[in-house]
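writing this on my phone so excuse typos. first protein, seq and then structure
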Amino acid sequence: MKSARTGNSDPLYVIFEQHLVNFQDNEVDRKVFISQVIKDYFSYLRRMKIIIPLSLEKSIAEELMSQVQVMLLKKIYGCHSIEEFQKKTSKAVRTQAKRKYSRLLKAK
């Protein structure tokens, strides 16, 4: 059985990073941003044939939201917004995030 991880990267972090570097809607608040990351993560888990019981989905989503919130705060530390973070992010970092995300989507 293949691992749900691609290389040493946590799939949740890879999905988070992809959303962060490709963020385009400045009107979206952090809560919506985090919800989108969680939604994509759950989709990834389903593609990997990982079943989350409906009775646990809400509590798992709440825990994941906390984790993504911490990741977001740490990643954009010193920036006032995601947009400001993106302006400071190099093209190499964006390319690397895209590459990791592509590998994640191909993993199965």
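second protein below, same order as before
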Amino acid sequence: MNYSVNKLTSKADCDALIQVANKGKDDLQYRKTTVNHQNVNFATTADEVDADLSSTNAQLTALTTVIASLPNGDVKDANITKQKKLELKAFLLNQKKENYGSIALLMNEFEQAKIDLEIAEADSLITAVQTQKAALPA
């Protein structure tokens, strides 16, 4: 972006703006570190949740087949109870997948990309102000 740095007429104004821009950049760097750390955790969690969800869904499929072939009675009731527990587990894993899994990872990667752009823009501003400061008379 082309900044209106020609409006800056004193080195003190340039220094103040550089200081504010550097502070903002430091905050962005800190945020980037946090997001990177979250991405590592989300990537690990995503793999674990996907594996657990796949296993749970396979168990549910097998149990549904077994229940369909059982006559009414205590054994069938016990298996229906197991089925309900597995359905709840699958539901909770899907919730976890949204909050901490691959979806969260992708959203955090998007956040990281936005932060990288903001850091680059802060650098552009700092460079423009430094150039203007160098051009000002002592």
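Residues 11-69 form the longest helix (59 residues). thats all i got for now
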